[in-house]
Structure formats: structure tokens, C-alpha cells
Amino acid sequence: MIRRPLSLAILTLTISGCANMPSAEQGPQDAMSHFRTAFNKQDAAGVAGVFKADAKLLPAGKPMLTGTEAIRAYWQGAFTAGVSHLEKTPVEIAVSGDLAVETSTYVVTFKDQQIAGKDTLVWQRGNDKQWRIASDIWNSDK
Relative to the CA of 7, which of 24, 44, 118, 133 has its CA 20 to 30 Å away? Predict the structure, then answer.
């Protein structure tokens, strides 16, 4: 008879522990929150810090860029040109092990214009358990 209450207690603790576990998508979502915060502060180094050291940036109509220094320089140039605010809405985040693919829509402010578009990011979780962008490609809806 003691076994039944003990089993029930263990099952209850296991279920309640699982209820408090973050979803698989939480890591990339948290990292994207850091990206948006840095972007909206026009902090190019902070934006680049969310990317892997060998990450690829594939801006629409431009050559591919590789590495955080090239990515930092790209975003610094964009901020200087008038890019100032980003809103992103995840459509889907698919996670498999240490890789995730995020498809989102966005609205970016450029000078006095609001530009809508979509993007796909490949996220990779490193040995330090931090999620970083491995590849980022986007284009506007116009």
C-alpha cells in the first residue's frame, strides 16, 4: 500500500517538473529578444553578438557576408542610413537538437517608412548552450 502513494507522488513531481520546462523554441526566442533589443538601440555590435563567429548574412540584393565583423559593419551602415526599429513575429520555429529554423515576418522602420517582409534564420546552439544565428536571409514584401 505504501508503493501506490509513493508512485503517485513521484508521478506528480515528474509531471509538475515537465510543466515548468521551457519549450524547445524558447532558446531561439530568447536570443531573438536580445537581437531586437540591440537592433532597436541601433547597437550594431550587440546585433552582431547574436551571430556565430562564422555566420552568414544574406541581405536582399546584396552579396553574402560572413563573420561577425562583417555583420556588425553591415548593420552599422544600415543604422547610419536610417534603419531604426524592428518588429518581428515568429511564424514557425522548428527545433531539432542543437539546430533551429525560424520563419518570421517583420516590419522595419527606414527613415519615415515602414517596410514589411519575411525572413528565415538558422539558429545553432553552441557548446556554451547559447543559441546564435548561423544564417539569416530576408526580403521585403515589395
Answer: 24
